[in-house]
Amino acid sequence: MGTISNQAAIVGIGATEFSKNSGRSELRLAVEATLEALADAGIDPAEVDGLSTYTMDNNPEIELFRAIGGRELKFHSRIHYGGGAACAPIMHAAMAVATGVAKTVVCYRAMNERSQYRFGTGHTPPPVPTAETAHYGWYVPYGLISPASWVAMQARRYMHNYGATSEDFGRVSVAARKHAATNPKAWFYQQPITLEEHQASRWIVEPLHLLDCCQESDGAVAIVVTSVERAKSLKQPPAIIRAAAQGAGDDSQMMTSYYRQDISRISEMNIVAEQLYAQAGIGPNDVQAAILYDHFTPFVLPQLEAFGFAKEGQAKDFIREGNIEMGGRLPINTHGGQLGEAYIHGLNGVAEGVRLVRGTSVNQVAGVNNVVVTAGTGVPTSGLILSPA
Amino acid sequence: MTEQSDLLARARAYIGSEATKPVTARDPVNQPMIRRWAEAMGDTNPLWHDADARAAAGFNGAVSPPAMLEVWTMSPYRPGGGTSDEGMEVLKLFDEAGYFGVVATNIEQEYVRYLQEGDIIQSRAVVADVSDEKRTGLGIGHFVTIDYEFTDQKGELVGRMKFRVLKFKPPLKQAEAAPAAAEGKAKKFPHPRPAITHDNAFFWEGLKQRKLLIQSFNGRLVHPPVPACPETGSFEWTTVEASGKGVIHSFVVMHQPQLPCFEYPLPVVLVELAEGVRIVANMIDAKPEDVAVGKAVTLDFVEVEPDYILPAFRLA
């Protein structure tokens, strides 16, 4: 049986600035990030023969392809469930490279999510009867209309089951802002927060305060994937894709998996974690740093548990002991996360995973052998383990 | 499809048996009903109301238009007017399987004699036929044919009727936006609407009758509904009505963003029903601080807009 483990590597990363108003088209952002990533890798744009992104991106593959002077596009894929698919294009790219379908794949995400449109406004267009819109009918008529509210329902049950508190969620936010404070690219550069400020921030959806919610951002990130063999002759030290997986579980719903036995768990991430460890042949003790998707703080806790960094229900203790900050057992979101750096739907987290492997993060963790990167939670999700050559 | 033929087999098991218990007319044949019926039908034949015309035709007392044959034993048409005996089991079977649309397609009547003032009519209905599945302009459905025999107070045959209805899955009418307010005023912000699909229509139809219906695959309950049983693959399902008892499994209190059609802070609860499935809904008469995980609740309904009813819960 074939494997995608150790077949492909991330050899280039690129990004625009992260802002609240880019002042230019999303497609232009995509092109800028793509060209920067290819320059970072030392690859001619004309060599690109694969593209991959994920849904809720508005940039057609072929528009990006013609803009960068592409010639022969042999592979393109677009993976469903928005941020939950943030790591999936890397997986699809690795599969394409491992099978010889494509040689050089660019994964991208470009959005003016703050200046041109916003998620979670509660805007409810007239429903067209599809299975996907029908699903909204189970909660939108009751005013449960935002991603924060969908997460909050599960967060409340997690608190009830395990005794976690709003302060435990707040500590995730404080750590992220601490890391962002030293990252000049982060929107919240030099703006750390205290736990008191977190507690005093206004309610968005109880039990979530404003500072439990990630920001809204304009910006783009691009990632270049090619074979491990090719990577040897390129500019940057490669980040080997040691493992890559997608996962959806029992009775998964889009942000509202409320009907399964235990709603305090994120079983999608357990499925991803098990696959990643099996592919890589490692366990939690072999991981030195992690990028855990932080659109909303509460879901960071069950992720720590899904990957075995803390036992079930004990992520709060792991966090209270300072383990997710610099110098702790497992520094997470060293770029500041989506709470502190930018909300580029998780692809900026993949880029930070690459920097940690290269040793170039502004908050570099010493002795990195394996970095776990995860994608959006509450939806079908995905994840990666990246390693140095 | 075996599931389909299972429904059909169950429906066809009724063929040859009584569709309802025999019905005896609530009133004997009488002049006032004849007069009103003829007026409503635009039937100006003097025989139905003019004593001289009747006498000339050889009748003593009021005489009924033959087409009124069925009228004398009809059950009251308002909801709740009929007795449970008057519902037809064979039609209920289709209702439960999602064929809740009904339209009469054919009536053939045969008259043995004129009905006259004082006759007390009794009808007996027998299921005559259930068709294969048909794809009609109204929707997918089955024709059900009922044969009636009408007798008088002596038990003598006075007429027959063949009555055919189509029981169908109605086309999915999508909810309309709230009606616009009076001209010149700002349009009212509509309450968010669900998308109605073939799979979930029963749920929203049930709410219109203030019933919370749960999909049941031979006793295995599923919510939100699915086209086939996740365990057996069967497409055959019915519904059960929720008892209305439940417990708050989790909840949130909405502050932002706000829609004009709700009051904030807005608690939204995830209730685990006594039947075992969970449902998201709002609370009635409950302050956010009174809502807690584990509290018992009971089901009620709110009409958020005319003919748009949602389930809601009260603290028990």
TrEMBL record, chain A:
One of its GO terms (molecular function) is acetyl-CoA C-acyltransferase activity. InterPro entries: Thiolase, Thiolase-like, Thiolase_C_2. Gene3D superfamilies: 3.40.47.10. The keyword Kinase does not apply. Pfam families: Thiolase_C_1. The keyword ATP-binding does not apply. Keywords: Transferase. Residues 257-379 form the Thiolase C-terminal domain. This is Acetyl-CoA acetyltransferase. It comes from Edaphosphingomonas laterariae.
From TrEMBL, chain B:
SUPFAM superfamilies: Nucleic acid-binding proteins, Thioesterase/thiol ester dehydrase-isomerase. Residues 25-158 form the FAS1-like dehydratase domain. Residues 240-301 form the ChsH2 C-terminal OB-fold domain. It holds the Pfam family FAS1_DH_region. InterPro entries: ChsH2_C (IPR002878), FAS1-like_DH_region (IPR039569), HotDog_dom_sf (IPR029069), NA-bd_OB-fold (IPR012340), Thioester_dehydratase-like (IPR052513). This is DNA-binding protein. It comes from Edaphosphingomonas laterariae. The lineage of its organism: Bacteria, Pseudomonadati, Pseudomonadota, Alphaproteobacteria, Sphingomonadales.
